[in-house]
Each structure stands twice: as C-alpha cells, then as structure tokens.
Amino acid sequence: MFTINENYQKLPGSYLFSTIAKKVNDYSAKNPEKKIIRLGIGDVTQPLVPAILEALHKAVDEMGNAKTFHGYAPDLGYDFLRNAIVEHDYRIRGCDITADEIFVSDGAKSDSANIQEIFGSNNRIAVCDPVYPVYVDSNVMAGRTGTYDAGTERWSDVIYMPCTMENDFVPELPKERPDMIYLCLPNNPTGTTITKPQLQAWVDYANQVGAVIIYDAAYEAYISEENVPHSIYECEGAKTCAIELKSFSKNAGFTGVRLGYTVVPKELKCGDVSLNGMWARRHGTKFNGAPYIQQRAGEAVYSAEGRAQLKEQIGYYMRNAAAIKKGLQEAGYTVFGGVNAPYIWLKTPGKMTSWEFFDDLLERANVVGTPGSGFGPSGEGYFRLTAFGSHENTIAALKRIQSL
Ligand SMILES: *Cc1c(COP(=O)(O)O)cnc(C)c1O
User: Fold this and answer.
1) How many of the other CB atoms lie within 10 Å of CB of 245?
2) What number of other Cβ atoms are within 10 A of residue 345's Cβ?
3) Measured from the CA of 187, which atom of ligand 1 is nearest?
4) pLDDT, tens only, 204-230
5) Which of 97, 130, 299, 335 would you call most buried, defined as having the most Cβ atoms within 10 angstroms of its Cβ?
6) 0.85 cut: is pTM over it?
7) Residue of 110, 114, 188, 343 with the most ligand 1 atoms within 8 Å of its CB, for mutation
C-alpha cells in the first residue's frame, strides 16, 4: 500500500486568504449595498503595456506559421531573453553575471519553492518574521523544519529573524548558525528594505559561516532610493554565497502571464560541486522551459519602449503608495514601507490586533487589507495595504479610512 509524504500533514492550514475571503463574503451577503474596496491581495490590476502586447501578438502569429513556429524552448531559456536580462538587470549595474548563470522559469513562486531541493535535508533555514509563506512551507514539505508549535506559531528547526519597527525592519544576524538564509528585499509584506552596506553585512556573514542566501528581488523595480541595492550581486562576494530570484509579475504585470528567472553563479559551490550545474540538471529534468510567447513578452520588458512604459506603470502604483502613506499619516497612523515597494505596512491603532483592525476596517470603511499576523507572529499588531489598486479605488479607500 502506498504511503504519503507525511510532511504535508504537518502543514498548518493556510487560513489567511481563505479567512479573508470568507469574512468579506459574509459581510457582502449581509450588506449587499456596500461597495467593498480590496487592497488586500498582492496582485496587479493595470493592463499589460503596449510594447508587451505587441510582442505577445507577434509571437502568437509566429506560432501559427510553420517557418517561425517554436516547439520546446531551451530548458534554461532563449538566448534573446537571457542576454537582455544580463545587459539590463546586471551589466548596467556593474554586476558580473553571465547568460549561462540565468535560468528562465515560469515565475518566482515556483523557483522560491523549488530551490530548496538542491540542498541537504539537514540544512537549517533562517527566515524573516513576518515572511512570504512559500519559503517556510516548501521546506516543511521537504521535512526540514521540525515540529510546529501552534502556540508560538513557530517551527522548532527554523531560525526566525523578527523584523519590526523596533529594529527598523532590518533583520539581525542570527545567534544560531543557519545554512540557508531567505531574504526578500524590498520586502513583502512590510514594504521596507535595507541599504547596500546592510546587505553587504549579510553577504559577508554568509561567506564567513558558509551559508547560502536565497535572495528574492521580486520588487526590485519599485526601488526609488539611491542607497538601496537592486541586486545582491552589487555586494562584494555575493557570487560565492547567493542565489537571486526575479519575477516579471510585479515589474511588468505578468501575474497572469507567468515568467521569472533565477541566477545561480558558477562561483557558488559546495566543495567542488557547482550549484549552477545542479540547478541546470534540476531544470532540465523537471521543467520543459517557459513558453516562447512569454519569453518574447519578457524580452519586450527590456526594450526602450517597454522600459519607458513600465516606468510609467510603476509610477502609477507608487503614486498610490505615496497617497496611502501620506493620507494615513495625516490620519494619525504610524506607517512604514511604500517608498521602495508597493506595500504599506501600518501599525494597528491602540492595542488592536491585526484581525480586530481587519474587521473594523471591513465593517466601518468597507476596505479590505491583510492582517500582519497572517505573515508570522512578529506581524501581529500590523496591517498591510497594497498600492496595486486603481488610483480611483485607492483614493476612495483612503477617504473612508480618514473619516473613521
Ligand atoms: C509576488 C511575489 C513573487 C512573484 O511570484 P511569481 O510566481 O513570479 O508571480 C515572488 N516573491 C514574492 C515575495 C512575491 O511577493
């Protein structure tokens, strides 16, 4: 008789977005006349920009002609896309990354969940708290996290690095020694980030203790401040300790298109074994390549028109972020993020818990956000609003919150 991967049984239910949906549905059913504004889930709302649409249409037409048809894509991605990535995401920033270190994929969620499988099952992981849940859950499934304590909401074998207003949301070097360190910067959910010297300290630490950093840069395009690194490879020594994950979802609206990539430098080694070779082998065995059509769309992200149009689109979201931040501050809230990321992280007023504030906001303002405690115990007492709504909805939501 078959058995199952018992590690899945250890996963606590992911109640966050289903609980939110249920609360919102219940409220709507009782109050059908109320117009609810959703600033909860981290999904984009603005349409694909013209340069990308044009590339998609062209690629679709090519697929309908035997002469220009494309079947299986190369496992690691088409050269036209990998070269564009190297040029625009790395070379112009002075990062020495080459095309054979880029692995094109269907997005950063799958890469961030899959990357753990090339590491030993006894490795200890360190994560920020609050955290994007995929990093922890994928390691739970692999049996790397020990046992779950529902009281503390923590896994016995995971090293947690609290990021709160007390430490300016900058994770501190852990006292226990981790083997794999997950960093998401700029951060989802807190919308905050760290400076280049602060990231350099992490790179130095990882090289010193022999840890690997899994660096999720999904929100890189939202960085507006000078001293914030766009890539971990801007730090000296990162090529011997860091893997970087990138997504086209947040910078180009590809949440429904699906495209991302991972950088595994050739210098990143465990003894004599190259992780680049391992990830190439993993990709070749378990992935048949991101679609040609999507990769052409990804190439358009880096064209002159694409870059100009996306700068405009990111500006649109960041004007929302600035409006939310300013409006909430004027209303007396303590607010973080929103400068280098499309998320606003606010302190709940008084002694309200994250869920109490959620209910209050839903019932009195008809605005939906995300309770900070859903991202980890250190998120308790915080609340996330996204800047991904339409400008009209964002301003309307803000007015309602201000009039509470
Ligand atoms: C949105 C997001 C991603 C992107 O995932 P895709 O699978 O590329 O859509 C990755 N990491 C974080 C932290 C995110 O918020």
Assistant:
1) 23
2) 29
3) 13
4) 999 999 999 999 999 999 999 999 999
5) 130
6) yes
7) 188
